[in-house]
TrEMBL record, chain A:
This is GAF and ANTAR domain-containing protein. It comes from the Bacteria. The keyword Transcription regulation applies. Gene3D superfamilies: 3.30.450.40, Winged helix-like DNA-binding domain superfamily/Winged helix DNA-binding domain. The keyword Transcription applies. It comes from Streptomyces flavofungini. Pfam families: ANTAR, GAF_2. Residues 172-233 form the ANTAR domain. Keywords: Transcription, Transcription regulation.
TrEMBL record, chain B:
Residues 98-209 form the GAF domain. Pfam families: GAF_2. It comes from Streptomyces flavofungini. InterPro entries: GAF, GAF-like_dom_sf. Gene3D superfamilies: 3.30.450.40. This is GAF domain-containing protein.
């Protein structure tokens, strides 16, 4: 590998999600993985196939160039080819000759299309997350730009870094959503109780009667109870 | 004798959550083994870190399972008619910290208390002091996003209003740690007179993380902690009423109620109840 060490280190940092202050989102990470792998490994083309669910669910595809992206997207839709296979099994797919019998038998639709794009062999490495595979890195080679053993090792390292960063980003996102939901539920409850108190004092009602008025207004105006309550609390709505 | 009202169901649900947590722990351990194997491949040292993170996560799931099981055992006995006080989930959390007093406080983005789950009366009273006075260890732990530990005279020095009042509750040491959900603040766990040397141990970190997961992050999370979380509904109702009586904003009415409770040395809840029942009408000058 002729790549200077510093350049390699920079790419590792980029692929591990950037800095905590300005993290790359998962599409950004996956796209960077495809482009950087092509650049670092010196192969003909790279594609990244990944998704939030299983290998047969919806997926995103990124690639170092458009024809490779279309090829892998089509492979995913047909569930045929090295990308879907590697994602499904979670195991590396060794370098495979696209003109060979195995490729033609196993991938009757895919192999000729890949050959037509000028690729002679292909390999894939899983995106191994914490406890499951989240996608695959597909490496395409030709005689001039072959997929080497060393390239495959480095490719797995890059794939691992990105897989972990993507999962961390998804976890973070989920945690934010749930924290927001919990805070919203708690502040809504607070506003509703306060609004009940306001109506009770203003109209000399019981808390239950006040609640019935709030709920009745929300229903007849097809609005959320908490929204109505907030407006009462802020003095923007007099019931 | 057995008690009704779904107590046996709560125990069953706690056992189910414990089983789910044990399964998550087993999955994490299994995944750690896989990463161990990958770490042996050349250039794959990253997986050593992943394996360590997964083992940490497994420890937290086990801690979560233990808390659920402890609660389930208590609830089962209670449902069968044993014991005088209904078990609280936080009792088990306090016990895991080597004390009887612990409180979980959930806050909004402005660090105002939204809900409190306390193991016993001193822990509840301590959180109420923070709520009334607007200062204290829980607040500081959330603001600074790090643990707060104070004992003896430091308590009074650090929090001039809260400190003496806390000491008056018979508490000599307090520790508070934020519930960390990365960028967002959710709340904090406060423990009073904890087992010496507890803070900073892995076991304590696991309890805190387990609590974060079981009130928020787990798929079966229960922010209400089996009905043990107090939302101060009556206090909020009273604030709404006082805002009408005094003709002020609800926030100001709440501040008025807090101030009155503090000067009368009365629990907020009791004061709020007398306002809601109409027995007490607050005015800016004083109770009438």
């Amino acid at each position: 590998m002729t790549t200077p060490r510093q350049h390699l280190a920079d790419i590792f940092v980029e692929l591990s999600g950037g800095s905590p202050e300005s993290p790359l989102d998962s599409p950004g990470l996956l796209a960077a993985l495809a482009v950087r792998s092509r650049e670092l490994l010196g192969v003909r083309a790279c594609s990244v196939l990944a998704g939030a669910g299983d290998s047969t669910d919806a997926a995103e595809v990124y690639a170092s160039e458009e024809p490779a992206r279309e090829l892998v997207l089509d492979a995913h839709l047909r569930q045929q080819g090295p990308g879907p296979q590697c994602w499904d099994t979670g195991r590396p797919l060794p370098r495979t000759d696209l003109t060979g019998l195995m490729a033609r038998q196993r991938w009757p639709y895919y192999a000729p299309r890949a050959l037509a794009l000028g690729h002679t062999h292909v390999a894939a490495r899983p995106l191994r997350g914490r406890d499951r595979t989240v996608g695959a890195l597909v490496l395409f080679g030709s005689d001039q730009e072959p997929v080497t053993d060393e390239g495959l090792r480095l490719g797995q390292s890059l794939a691992d870094i990105v897989a972990i960063a993507v999962l961390r980003e998804r976890e973070l996102h989920r945690s934010h959503t749930r924290t927001d939901q919990l805070e919203h539920a708690l502040t809504s409850r607070l506003a509703i109780e306060q609004a009940k108190g306001i109506l009770a004092a203003r109209k000399s009602l019981s808390m239950d009667e006040s609640f019935a008025i709030l709920r009745g207004h929300a229903r007849s105006h097809q609005r959320k109870l908490a929204e109505v309550a907030r407006e009462v609390v802020e003095g923007r709505l007099a019931l | 004798m057995t008690r009704g009202d779904g107590y046996a169901e709560q125990a069953a649900s706690a056992y189910e959550r414990a089983a789910a947590a044990r399964e998550r722990a087993a999955n994490a351990e299994e995944a750690a083994l896989r990463h161990d194997a990958w770490a042996l491949e050349p250039g794959q040292a990253l997986h050593t870190e992943m394996a360590a993170a997964l083992r940490k996560s497994a420890g937290c799931h086990r801690s979560s399972a233990e808390l659920q099981e402890a609660f389930a055992r208590r609830m089962t006995r209670w449902a069968q008619g044993h014991g005088a006080v209904r078990p609280r989930f936080m009792t088990g959390v306090a016990e895991a910290c080597g004390t009887r007093s612990a409180a979980l406080t959930l806050v909004d983005s402005g660090n105002s208390q939204l809900a409190v789950a306390a193991s016993n009366e001193p822990a509840r009273a301590a959180q109420e002091l923070e709520f009334i006075l607007g200062e204290g260890p829980t607040r500081d732990a959330v603001t600074h996003r790090g643990p707060v530990l104070a004992s003896g005279s430091v308590i009074e020095e650090r929090w001039p209003c809260y400190g003496p009042a806390l000491i008056a509750l018979g508490i000599r040491e307090v520790a508070a740690v934020p519930l960390d959900t990365s960028l967002r603040r959710l709340g904090a766990l406060a423990v009073f007179d904890p087992r010496p040397g507890l803070i900073g141990t892995r076991a304590f970190a696991e309890v805190v993380e387990a609590l974060t997961r079981l009130v928020l992050l787990d798929p079966d999370a229960d922010p209400d902690l089996y009905g043990g979380t107090d939302h101060r509904d009556v206090v909020q109702q009273a604030a709404g009423m006082v805002s009408v009586h005094v003709d002020c904003r609800v926030d100001d009415a709440l501040a008025l109620i807090k101030a009155r409770a503090f000067t009368l040395a009365m629990p907020l809840e009791s004061l709020a109840r007398s306002i809601v029942s109409g027995d007490l009408k607050l005015t800016p000058e004083g109770p009438s």
